[in-house]
Amino acid sequence: MPVEPLSQKEIEDRLAELPGWSVEDDRLTRSYRLGSHFAATAMVIHIAQVQDELDHHSDLTLGYNTVSVSVNTHSVGGAVTELDFGLARRVEDLAPGHGAH
């Protein structure tokens, strides 16, 4: 089934389920502040594993104790799709203090 861009209403509905996430410049984004540089680096590694598993990759920015995630779907012209929200939910699940870990 081909991936389709989400409508503004669909995006707003999905954002309501993911506090802290937003859409900026047609990209789904979120930043996390962690307790240390090591914790932030470990989170990047875990996100990379999830991205390879999903075969859907975001831009990741590692700061001293921050991780920023920014994603859209290139195959539909850089729009936000369900693939992006699927990745965001998985990232949220592994974020310290946010998910089921």
Task: Give the DSSP E fraction (strand runs of 2 or more residues).
Answer: 15-25%
User: How would you sum up the global shape?
Assistant: globular
Order of neighbouring strands in the sheet with most strands = 1-2-4-3
What is the element string, with H for helices and E for strands?
A: HEEHEEH
Task: Give the tally of β-strands.
Answer: 4
- The quaternary state of the protein chains shown equals single chain
Molecular structure report:
It is built from three helices and four strands. With 101 residues, the chain is an alpha+beta fold. Strands 1-2-4-3 form a four-stranded antiparallel beta sheet. The protein is 40% helix and 20% strand.
Descriptive keywords:
3 helices; globular
Task: Give the topology.
Layout: H1 8-16, E1 22-24, E2 27-33, H2 37-54, E3 59-62, E4 66-71, H3 82-94
Antiparallel strand pairs: 1-2, 2-4, 3-4
Helix pairs in contact: 2-3
